[in-house]
Amino acid sequence: MTLKKRIKTLLLSLILLLAAGNLFAIEEYVSKVYKQIDVIFIEQADKELDKVLRQNVDDKYYYLMENYTKKKVRRLIIDNEYEFAMTAIYIIIDNNIDGDFEDEDAVDLYAAVAEAYEIQQQFEKEKQEKAIAEAAKKEAEKERLLAVVEKDYNVVTTAEGKTVYLSSKDERTEKYRWNLNFGMIDFGLVTAAGLDKPSMSEGIALDFTYEYSIPNSIAIGGDLFFDFKFMEFNSGPMEFNFEIAPKIAFKFAPKLFFRVGFSDLGVLKSKNSDGTQPKPEIAKIQNAFYGSVISPFVGIQLSNATFDKVGLNLDLNYLLGGLIAGDYQALSLKGGVSVPFAELERVKLVFNLGVRDTLLIKTKDGVENHASAILGFGVENVIR
Q1: Band of the pLDDT at 80, cuts 50, 70, 90?
Q2: Strands 199-213, 176-192: parallel, antiparallel or unpaired by DSSP?
Q3: Taking CA atoms, which of 208, 323, 366, 382 is between 20 and 30 Å from 291?
């Protein structure tokens, strides 16, 4: 290789080396600005972005810095971070104005971001309004449920001020109780002095109870009973029993009622259908009975004493009519159990088994006893 060619090769190498050095210098400088922009977008520091772009607005490589900034803005748009994206684009446009040229791409980008931002704001507003409406609806439902809970449960406030709800209650059923029973089988057995064998009969019965409780005070109510024995098995007289009794219980014993009522134990001594007297043997049976006992009474009652789900009722009454008539004394006793077998929302169905007994101690004729066994079904309200 000649000297001339060697010189040319050396000069060309120097030129390429200088060009490569300048290229690397440019890349290093721009990369430094890129890193500054990265940090600015992470921190969303708008003043720092404005400072960096203003410092380099006259640089011949400013367009690279601006393009990189737009790239970062587009990333913000993808991430729906419109506020800083609009701020960054505004800074780019402001720097372009200061630099005596207009970046139409930046202006269009700003308009697009502003429109997207407005749409997002409207969406957020509607979302917030919907959330407020849902919260108000939930709060109203909460208040409604709270009112129901406070009505249906006993409310207790602890020493720490917390509200505790204890034991379910139903105001509609806790304050009152009612029970209606129908005795489909009412079997009666009567013994009396002068009868060779007991008189047996069968009929139907109806029993109704209502009780109303005044909280922390008294309970008042009433009982109604009626039975009619119309099937006589050995020529004894037909009989019926009617009883009505208001009652009251006090706070110290809410299930123990004191009753004052009226009772009618009727014995129908009938003649033959043609008006004549019955045969002597039949008349003897019928005449052995005292007859109708119509009397006021006083008594006590154990009402609805529950054992598990079984209810127990006991009545003991003294008939005052004997004191007036002077020729007898009378007591009546009633007992019954009820076993529920089906429960609905407001009422339950029960199976009832009961006994009744009225004892007449006659001054002249000895003792007369009217006993009944009653089998039936009933319905009563549910007390929760």
Answers
A1: confident
A2: antiparallel
A3: 208
